[in-house]
Amino acid sequence: MATVLSIADAVQQRFAQAISTAFPDAADSDPQLRRSDRADFQANGIMSLAKPLRANPREVATRVLEHLAADEVIASLEVSGPGFVNVTVTDAAILERLAARAADTRLGVGSTAEPGVTVIDYSQPNIAKEMHVGHLRSTIIGDALVRTLEFTGEKVIKRNHLGDWGTQFGMLIQYLIEHHDELGDDTEAADSGPSMSRLNRLYKASRAKFDSDTDFADRARRRVVDLQAGNPETVASWQGMVDESKVYFEAVYARLGVLLEDADAIGESYYNPMLAEVCADLEASGVAVRSDGALCVFFDDIKGPNGEPTPLIVQKSDGGYGYATTDLAAIRDRVGLLGANQLLYVVDSRQALHFQMVFETARRAGWLPDSVRALHLGFGTVLGKDGKPFKTRSGETVRLMDLLDEAVDRARTVVSEKSPQLATEELEDRAKQVGIGAVKYADLSTSRTRDYIFDADRMVSLNGDTGTYLQYAYARIQSILRKAPEGVIPTAHQDLALEPAERALGLLLDEFGATITQVTGTFEPHRLCAYLHHLASAYTTFYEHCPVLKAPSPEVMETRLLLCQLTGQTLRQGVDLLGIGTPERL
Predict the structure, then answer these.
(1) pTM of the predicted model, to two decimals?
(2) What is the rounded (10 degree) CA torsion for 351, 353, 359, 363?
């Protein structure tokens, strides 16, 4: 089905044509149409149009209105204040669009006219380490952006950049060889949880020994050389850790309900064969120069606290490589091999300077042409109720699985109180949907760049700006639709006069497509969350003021059922783009 032209766009077009006719020299002026509490819309652009014309804004507005008239979309126009124009639209226009959206599986939202190829890098856990609360935001934000971009028709390539290479693996492999008895009962390996926890403990033990025992540290470094040289025993040990870690990562992703799969996981080891060439090319082109034995890229505008230039080190003085080298190799791979015209990195805000230098280096080297956009989508920190970075009582970082379990436990209590008749299996299924959905929504509803406080009790509340509130609104809508009399079909009767609550809900439903465009333009999922919460709130007002099953006539009942149906469809589609489930009953 073709894209449904929203009422806002229809009014915008009419204003643009009227301005062009009244003032041909100002044909490109933006009417600046906005929703208003004084009417359905308000055109604010007349004020800025009047200044270059050196005319009174009210007089300019009046001239524009001479070329606008009430029609099938516009019910009335009024010049207000110093030169604003208030616009009221017709009930028929609202109902016509509601019917068109309800009849379309995409709710009338069209695909991008010229879709591109976006490579998005997110989640990024480390092999042999359990995922912790710090991985939550990258994973959830990245997943929501993937879903939303794909909904608009963009080709999206997911990249889960695993930390699977470096000195720490020589350290861990050597420790495992020397302390094989600490591996424990192999039967534990069938369960990704205990197995990964054991590997995590061994990592900490190996780090402690590496830091305290110089002889062990030397053996560990030699083991790194063995790994890089392809020594069979060393590679086999490393591969075992990688495989075991991936099983665990997949269990976490399944628990979270995100789209990442094993095929999306590309470790640092994948880029390792490319690093020498990256450095050679940078040095040969003059982009990088030797400084104290290290290969560095310098920037005029980036200096350290002492005022000295802060370089990007692409090869250390001992010949080793760092994160920057791998990231540069990844850019070459993603642009040259995958054909990306947009690179997105959902990574902690503290890495902003790193990505600034990496992107600039890649552009100087010609690996990141002007036609390719590269963005670091930084995000804030998850905090505890004390407003400090979320830690356990012992001061350690909170394990991600523990955090999710806590949310599901809280949700189980809420759901069982709301629906005590549920069988155990159904209760567990809903508790998971509500608990995981609550965690995701709390994260995504916060502006990406801000910190937020993890509070499981607040997250699963049936009231307020929570994912549970949206799920409850959807479930209530499905209950009404199930109770509708047999043979009654939701239908928009376009000759009906709408109540204020019906108009407000209808106009909001018509904004879904514009909201998706905002999210993909800004990469800010909180805009979709805000829209969905506003929609659920508007539905609650409609539900309280406009009886559906006890409507005064069959036509009104069918029209209100259509409003219910489309609100449900929009909530379901919207929260699905956030990666959140919608229980039919709650």
Answers:
(1) 0.93
(2) -170
